[in-house]
Automatic annotation (TrEMBL), chain A:
UniProt keyword annotation of Nuclease present: no
InterPro entries: ActD
Keywords: Membrane, Transmembrane, Transmembrane helix
Transmembrane segments annotated in the record for this chain: 54-77, 103-124
The protein's name in its UniProt record: Quinol:cytochrome C oxidoreductase
PANTHER family recorded: LIPOPROTEIN-RELATED, QUINOL:CYTOCHROME C OXIDOREDUCTASE MEMBRANE PROTEIN
Automatic annotation (TrEMBL), chain B:
Source organism, top-level taxon: Bacteria
Record has Cell cycle as a keyword: no
Name under which the protein is recorded: Quinol:cytochrome C oxidoreductase
Transmembrane annotation, as ranges: 20-42, 48-67, 87-107, 156-175, 195-217, 229-252, 272-293, 313-330, 342-360, 372-392
Keywords recorded for this protein, A-Z: Membrane, Transmembrane, Transmembrane helix
Organism: Mucilaginibacter pedocola
Amino acid sequence: MSNTKFILGLFDDPDEMMHGIEKLQKNSIPIYDVYTPMPIHGIEAKLGIKDSRLGYAAFCFGCLGASVIFSIVYYTLVHDWPMNVGGKPNFAMPNFVPFTFEWTILFTAFGMTLTFFAATHLFPGRAPRVMDLRATDDRFIIAVDAKGNVPHEDITNLLKEAGAVEIKHNKRKYVSYE
Amino acid sequence: MKTHNSFEETFKFEGSAKTWSLAALAVGVIAVAIGFATGHVAQTFSNLLLMSYYFVCVCIAGVFFLAYQYVAQAGWSASLIRVPQAFAKVLPIASLVLILVVTAGLFTTHEVHEHGKTEVEPYLYAHWATHGLTDPKAENYDKIIDGKSGFLNLKFFYGMLVVFLAAYSYFGYALTKASNDEDTEGGMRNYNKSFALACTFLVIFGFTFPIFAFGTIMSLEAHWFSTMFGWYNLAAMHVSGVAVITLVIILLRKKGYMGWLSENHLHDLGKIIFGFSIFWTYVWFAQFFLTWYANIPEESVYFYIRWEPEYKFWFWLNIVMNFLSPLLLLMSRDAKRMTNRLMWVCILLIAGHWLDYYIMIMPGTVKEHREFGFAEVGSFLAFGGLFTFLMLTQLSKFTSLIPKKHPFLQESLHHHI
């Protein structure tokens, strides 16, 4: 029993890497993930990655921001300490529009950023999770989970045929925990 | 994906599009004539002003769209710019029509009986163009209007209309010509030229369009003023203009033209429509809110008349059509990619911004005598038909529906979001 955890196919050309993905899929080998130094159009569809749910988070944070400021201002200016400002009613809707709008945006923006950081493990003190450092430089990497039933030889050969410049059998998932 | 597109595809203007646009024009002209003949003269003039202003604004939106695409060096739009170019080429005629309508309205007068007095007023711009308003010896002398007469006088008014519209028309013509030259010459020369032209246009346009809106529409109620009015009109012009551009593109695609455009391009157009509908609401609310907060009589008079029973329903419907409907119908990503959904939202917004202009114009001209009749339907049909006919004629004159040597053409053909 080999103790290889992940097999990485390193490509130096994005088109060849896309070709490699096709080849693996044709042979029913599940791909764990793909790492590229730059965004590649259409790769989500090819890998069958689900749509981002960041929009739902944005909606929830927006609602939170709106209700927080609405409650604060309603409590202070209408319920607890009503004041006469220019003879307007204490609870006049046009008044409530600007700050509700602003806080909705503020909470949405910060909430989305924090959600994104949390989901991608990008926050201070956290070592970045990288399978191979050259994925941030000049290599396009397909990672295959080695725990499956497919013989490692076959995966290696398929990646080689697709044009991988280097194949790595990694014993640990990430190189950058240290 | 279809990978082979004909770069020689041309638009042939014939068949039902031609018949229907000419029929709409004819029916509209007859209805407008009926409006005049049955004595609804002020109402008909107001509607002609409304539609000719709308007509000019949609054509200006074509030039504006072209210009900011060039300034942003946008790639996605490269394969669809023939449509806004056709809009830009109609602008000279649209400007001429607006000036004709304004002239007719300024120099035909009628007697108005108000507050026990009889005055001879022009049908349009009576608030400042009525004879005697700026003459201290005259009976109807108006000190406020006299104070504004440096801006509100016939010379300045016509100078503004002619100079501004001629400038916008020139930039529309020059940008289209550069694109046509690019097709024959190739190279980057014409693209760089377009970039310079577009930058110049946007600077000039940004400063002059608010003044154009102040003069043409805001001066209908010359005692009132709002510094937000120019931006409010800019937003309305842009939303309605891009809605018309999108509608034309969708209908062309349904007829089998422009097969290289995909839902990705429509998605981008949908985003502009969605975003600028929100922007329109923002400036609309800003104008309302400042007036409401300050509550100064000379400012709130504008909303006072729009709050009367004749206008209140339409005042609120305006917000529902132009803010709530695009907000709810176009918010999600998938919604912007559904051609039919987008098409109906465009139609809704075109009608919505007609109502928006209606609310801006009518209380200043026909006051509380608001009616809905031949003039409204007729002018909409006439100008809709005229615009469709002229725009499609211009579109059919292009040697190809795609700018085949545009430097970003490949980016546009492979656009994917």
